Known about the structure:
This protein has 7 helices and 8 strands. The protein has helices at residues 3-8, 22-34, 51-66, 81-97, 126-140, 150-154, 182-190, and strands spanning 10-17, 38-41, 44-48, 70-77, 103-105, 146-148, 169-170, 173-174. This is Chromate resistance protein ChrB.
Amino acid sequence: MSSSEVEDRDWLLVSISTGAVASLRVHVWRQLRKLGAIYIQQSICLLPDRPPITKAVTRLLARVRAQGGQARCLHVRLTDTDEIVAGHRELIRLAHARGIRVVGGTIMPFKGNPWLYPEGTPEPFALEQIRDEVNTWIRTSGEYDAVADFEQALRSPTDPDQLRPEFNVRDGQEGDWLHPNDAGLNAMAEAIDLSRL
């Protein structure tokens, strides 16, 4: 494994609770979004573990704690597709054991995001390869009760590793190539076949 592949697999898992301070919550959300945060669930996100991002996250967490909130950051490494698939299978197993149907959503394109694709990053890089492999598994394994193909709904016809340009514009400004605009969110909603639920 090359040194660039190792760096591509290193992430920060950040959990922040700002409490009742609404202005702090908005500030935290904006700062994490600027840094390229990928939200896993409310208040928990992943960010690339790179020196400028780690420094910014450290400052942000200190501010949250100073204002009475709770903040944690773990350094994690994505090892391979098999580990991610094993996690999916465990979630599916737990849901099915409780009689819950599970819809698998493919991972959206993110090429062009300045934090995930800093200048000089070779393509394809490790995270992109993992995304492609996991998406193939989600679509073809048959283990989910249904699949919402968010990648298909959002990807550019000229570059399938990138969002459609019209889903990357907000208020006339280019977005971060990671978080789709309202039109992109509508396309995601349309990718869910409600008859399969």
